[in-house]
Write a structure and sequence with these properties.
By secondary structure, the chain is of the alpha+beta class. It is 44% helix and 28% strand. Residues 3-20 have low confidence and may be disordered.
Length: 96
């Protein structure tokens, strides 16, 4: 019985701990006015909820601190999507 409880506890910890520990990234578009400048960037999102809405809530204040206005979060993804976006993001790859 004790082994069964320990196994169940371990399984539950793995299920609940997995998504929170997963790496999450978002690609976005932002702007700066006067003069108008548009950027495409990629940032890591620390929120355990890897959704565009959660990424938006986290990225908007980060970008604002640098003088940028978040226009849209295009997508969220795991580390497997980083390399294909690196060249497009240029200086804004993991900057904010």
């Amino acid at each position: 019985m004790k082994t069964l409880i320990s196994s169940a506890t371990l399984a539950l910890a793995l299920v609940l701990g997995g998504p929170a520990a997963a790496e999450c990234y978002a690609d976005y578009k932002a702007k700066r006015d006067e003069p108008l400048k548009l950027i495409y960037g990629v940032s890591q999102v620390s929120d355990g909820n890897c959704s565009p809405g959660a990424a938006e809530g986290e990225l908007a204040p980060r970008l604002a601190s640098g003088g940028w206005t978040l226009l849209t979060v295009l997508s969220t993804f795991g580390p497997e999507g980083l390399e294909e976006r690196k060249a497009s993001a240029g200086d804004f790859f993991l900057r904010y």
